[in-house]
Amino acid sequence: ALLDLSGVHEVKGTWMASTTLPCTYMPSEGFTQQTLTWSIERDHSTSTIFRRDNSGDHILLSQFRDRVSVPKHSPGDISLLIENLEIPDSGHYTCRVIWRSTNNSLITREVTTMVKVVKVAVTKPVIRAGELGLVVPVGARTSLTCVASGSPPIRYRWFRGSPGGTALLLGSQAELAWDSLQPSDTGTYFCQAENR
């Protein structure tokens, strides 16, 4: 249907992790997005969190400052990303859009998502062991991926060398990649996973 917002009914987010509340529509000619607001209802009161209008993006609730954002460059995608979820972030979130049509009439649509922030039992990371003695041809692309279970967020670091010895930090992503392997890349690599 024309200018229908689609979202989801419920989102379960994990405490201290990030979550996205989907809100999308198909942009159509002759309709211009005037304002977008995201609001939260809890304890029978509603507050606006985020507003986008012709003057830009505004975060109106201090508890969400630096923690919420909406995509800027993907027309029709106005999903709300919330980072570092806190328990009080639980509530009903409403995405409301007002469009102006070419004949200057206004159309409003909204969609509401219930968010439940859940605590998971805090567990330390456990790394799933990779293969030892990987043999890869010179010039090939390859990557090593560190996979750990445990409570998010988990930070990864890759080193070359041996744990406890001298080690060179190579990256702080879960994946360590090479575009073109050289003989000098031969060696021992290890991954470190860390959470709170």
Write a structural description.
InterPro entries: Ig-like_dom, Ig-like_dom_sf, Ig-like_fold, Ig_sub, Ig_V-set, VSIG4. Residues 12-112, 125-196 form the Ig-like domain. One of its GO terms (molecular function) is complement component C3b binding. The protein has 196 residues and is mainly β. Helices cover 0% and strands 49% of the residues. It has a 6-stranded mixed β-sheet with strand order 2-11-10-5-6-7, with no helix packed on it. It has a 3-stranded antiparallel β-sheet with strand order 3-9-8, with no helix packed on it. β5 and β6 form a beta hairpin. The protein starts with 5 loop residues before the first strand and ends with a strand.
Summarize the topology.
Elements: E1 6-7, E2 10-14, E3 19-21, E4 23-24, E5 31-42, E6 45-53, E7 56-59, E8 68-69, E9 80-82, E10 91-101, E11 106-118, E12 126-127, E13 142-145, E14 148-149, E15 155-161, E16 167-171, E17 175-178, E18 189-194
